[in-house]
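Please go through this protein, sequence plus structure tokens, and consider how the sequence yields the tokens. Keep your notes short.
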Amino acid sequence: MPSANGPSSVLDISGAWRSGRSAELLAILDDHVEQTLREDPLEASQRGDDRFADQLADLSAEAVKRSLELRRARLAKLNALGNAKLSEVDRLDADLLRYELETDIERAKVFGEQMPIDARSGPQVWLPQMHDSLSFSSEQDYRNHAARLEKVAAQIDQTIAQMRAGLAAGRVPPKVVMVGTVDQCRMLSSADVRETPSLSRFYAPFLGRPASDPAATRARAAIRDGIVPAFERLGRFLQDEYLPKCRDSVAYSAGIDGPAAYDAALRRHTTLAMSADQIHQLGLSEVARIKGEMMGVIARTDYPRKSELAGDELFRAFIEYLRTDPRFYYTKPEDLLAGYREISKRIDAEMPKLFTVLPRLPYGVRELPALTAPTSPTAYYYRGSIEAGAPGWFMCNTYKLDQRPKYEMIALTLHEAVPGHHHQIAIAQELKGQHPFRTFGGYTAFVEGWALYSERLGLEVGDGGGPANTISGSGMGSSEGPRHLYSDPYDDFGRLSYEMWRASRLVVDTGIHAKGWSRAQAIEYMLSVTSLSPLNIEREVDRYIAWPGQACAYKIGELKIRELRARAEKALGAKFDRRTFHDAILDSGAVPLPTLEAKMDRWMTNRN
């Protein structure tokens, strides 16, 4: 799109949509997007903006300070502008930017950049995978990426410097979340990779190119002379300096930043002012409700002991059956991937029943890399970009197949692919007639709440098509009702298990970080209420320890969307249409939950 910043910038300063908008606000939004792209060159590349395609982010303390100062100045300018004379669309943009800037400034108080690594995230996880979300369609793309690889060593050294600052301040993570990080660094800096750089995952984009190709030659040199030594340094630092000083305690509130840091994390991720105790009690209530539904589904299965057991004894025995019977597990990675692809294609055909607007961007199913699979959850979604020529990717974990049950696959596909993450994120990226700022939103409660809500939509589509409009009357609890994606009771139990998993997170996350729960206590609780495999539960609990508050956003966001739908069904009656309701939820991009509620209340009023 045309831009004063160059032909590949995401900013469009001449678009007709700018007509009638506040010039002062648009200038502030332009500055914010430009800063975002400059500070995150990978983000820019993923959006098809190649101005920084040979760069990586500057993670130095000076850069972090400079970024914060720019955000403070931008917030002051935004507040001086006021809202009185702004149009509806301008006011929403201004409110969202204000919320984002205030959140960034609040978040800076806990110096998250000083604790940038755990076994699931950090440069040793994300950098070897960065090419997965990039497009390589020209010689310049390969030259730029080779230059980008030359910047990896500097970013690793900046990361080490930030972690040393954290050590000096007493700001360190729990030891348990760091298990595996040294081995990850060793894999990236092995003697085999040093001797043959083309074996490195960093070299993947250059495979198949001639050995004499200048960009490929430059990439091999960057791996051998820069990347391998850098990850050797990082591994030694972690082993010798960092891990010995990490905390034995697991609660975020037990760290140097105290309970206030956890309270702030809950507000940031949920976008609501709920206390840890309120969230904990909500979780207990949801766990009890969902368990009742699960017992009803067990009665519909062919479990051989369902008539001889009852209550908690039946529940525990059924869970053990799911975890141990070979019928529920694939034995070959390619079969698991083929299963996900088949489910994805089935769901694709149902999407027009749920939406009037579908994204242009396609998605695919891909295996998680062996480097990160042992410490990763069951799946991820990696966003793509039409502008960058990259599809979205539903990334599936094939490590330890006896821990990847078939009965979870439909719910997981609905969550990670469509109508969950891929659909929502691609729709946001393709928003038209709005400032590009709106395509950058990533509020956890909205994004993950929508994905969890999407799992439930499997009750409404598939085979016979499900009910025409409302969730009520879906026929669940009986094998005689309308057919849908969860008609097999084991698949339906998998759906409920996933919902139970998200409800139990409310209990476990707040238990760990606000109520003194141990890691073992959290694991035991989740083993008792979900059908997740023991390995998955351990990985999940470690994730909650490493990422306080984030896991609470899923259920809270989903409950808000379900509440809004029930309200709309009641208010609109026969006028309610689930397709236009879903479109309206998504057509402003990701927003905080209070903003979503106010918007949908106006939508209901206008539809009456």
Observations:
- The longest helix spans residues 214-242.
- The chain has two domains: 1-110, 268-607.
- The first strand starts at residue 363 and ends at 367.
